């Protein structure tokens, strides 16, 4: 899977997760389709997809045994690193620790991991 395809998979899984878990009406930016996604966000999504895909591969597929929280934490940590890469002084919500993320975002991050985990390499 190309980096662009991986980034799109990440974005599609993110949007599906937001629509499933967000309480009420999500902000437009949370569900912006790929064509409206800023370049920095496309790059970050591609990088996180690669990190998750590599983690699944080097783990020999045993990531299926991780808890949803462990999976979500991994995505959140990878995303935080990307925020520091793309922004000199990121918004606090972009780099919040796992415990400080809203439940909908934790669940969405776990959904993203699982979507990447299920997708063919």
Summarize the structure.
The chain is mostly helical.
Molecular structure report:
The chain is mostly helical. The protein has one domain (3-22, 39-118). 61% of the residues lie in helices and 0% in strands. It is built from four helices and no strands. The chain is globular, with a radius of gyration of 13 Å.
How do the helices and strands line up, and which of them pair or pack?
Elements lengths: L2 H19 L17 H20 L9 H19 L16 H16 L3
Keywords:
121 residues, mainly alpha, 4 helices, globular
Helicity level: 55-70%
Sheet with most strands: none
**Gyration radius, in Å:** 13 Å
Instruction: Provide the β-strand percentage band.
Output: under 5%
Described by the principal axes of the CA atoms, the overall outline is globular
Low-confidence blocks of residues: none
Average pLDDT: 96
Number of strands: 0
Overall structural class, as computed from helix and strand content, comes to mainly alpha
Distance between the termini: 6 Å
